[in-house]
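fwd from M.: "can u put these together and see what the complex looks like"

so here's what she sent:
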Amino acid sequence: MLETLSIVISVIIYLSIFFLIEYYIFRSYLNWLKKSFLSHRQLFWKNLGFIILILGNLLFIFSMVVTNSNLISISSFSRHLAYLGGFFFSSLLLALIVLCIKDFILIIHRLYRYFIMRTNRVRDIQDLPNQSRRSLLKYGGAASILAISSAPVVSTFMIGDEIQIIKKLISFNNFPKSMNGLTIAQLSDIHAGAYMNLENLTDIFHLVNSLQPNIIVITGDFVDKNTYDLSALSNTFQLLQSDIGVFGCLGNHDHYAGAKDISNMLENSGIKMLNNDGKTLFINNDKISILGVDYEGTKMHPGGYSDIRQALKKVNSDSFKIMLSHNPDFFTTIKKYDIDLTLAGHTHGGQIGFKIGGLNINPAYLAFRYPKGHYIEENKHLYVNVGIGNYGLPIRTIKPEITLLTLSG
Ligand SMILES: [Fe+2]
């Protein structure tokens, strides 16, 4: 009962915020129409804007329904409709950011005029002749609307669809000499589900195999949510091939979907799941250990299933150690232990991020201490993969990634 009530209240709060944002954007659009068009031309653009808003909302609701369904595959038609809903949502977010920046600058400008110049008259554009002012506002506004509405589409198809293979060489003082050149392919945040179907997975796994890694690791979020067809998923995960083995750790989405079922499904496909577990590998008379912690939780996603000590008990204490941890910020704790390299994911590199001039608008940089890439602290290494799948909507402006790490002494 209490849980249902909290869900209803959360939905009401989210919807209210969403509609307030839409009201703010549409009101700015109407203001722009008033200043840029003669009154008899305004009605057409006002109605068109309203129709686009209604259609966009319907598509967005559809994409949310698809996102929250338990399907592993959807039809190509539904997928494209869901994409449109995602583009609409991303354009709204971008418009919100641009309008907030514009209104903030305007407020500062007015305050400056009022307190410093002792006039509340805003000059510049208002001082231009009527026709020139209207043209400037009209074409400037139209260009901004076009840029904002096309940016998510362009960035998704030109950037978000292209998998980047990041090849990285990391050297350690204590890496076993006989294993110099050992390669590890890292995948993260696959989010198998409606937008990452079996066909997409097959293509990705063939690409990973083509790199011929010695070891493959997957750092959590194998699935987006619970899916009806775990055996089909298991068959697809079996495609991954490496000389030494495939290892994984659980992410928050695997817990939402049912950690036990997901772990069993992956174990059945030959992936060694390291949920607070570890394994020491003896290669060329040297030792290397792969360890993994279960999802440790964050403020946003409570977890608390991790146990580093438990994992360490399972491995040879004087071996070179690699830890798999879904949440990269857990590195602040992991680095205190005798662990040489931590591999993580979870952040998606922000998934949707924009650079406007020198300004990096990316949620990962606000939410995480280690958003993406390679970090070295206290002589311990961390690599954060930006993931290959999507969280929520099928929109990504940060390129999906497969990492190929080469380790050396
Ligand atoms: Fe994820």
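replying to her w this: The CA atoms of residues 206 and 306 lie 31 Å apart.
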